[in-house]
Design goal:
This is Ferredoxin, 2Fe-2S. Strand 1 and strand 2 form a beta hairpin. This protein starts with a strand and ends in a 7-residue tail after the last strand. Strands 2-1-5-3-4 form a five-stranded mixed beta sheet. The longest helix has 7 residues. With about 110 residues, it is an alpha+beta fold. It has one domain: Beta-grasp domain (Ubiquitin-like (UB roll), Roll). The chain is globular. The chain is built from two helices and five strands, in the order E-E-H-E-H-E-E.
Length: about 110
Amino acid sequence: MITFTVEDRNGEQQPIEIPEGINLNLMEVLKASDYDILATCGGMALCATCHVQVLDGLDALPSAQDAELDMLDTLPDADSDSRLACQIRVNESLEGAVFRIKGEPGFI
């Protein structure tokens, strides 16, 4: 199992356990876990509504690619620890990481 922590917009943290080898990105896992993520573009790095802040574990993640960096540059609250959840594959690099949801709320 891969275990990481998600902090919602209210500051509440919950651990999430995902089986290894699952072929999903972090955005898909957050939506499936009933987190309020808009994800307007469906994971294409075109809308930034799945913006997360990596509170712990950023160094273990693969580097952001140009499309993700370009989209993050459009956000007023993006920082060096910002990522788009749709661009983070769920694998062992997420073990122990902590993510804070930053993107716009959806309509659950």
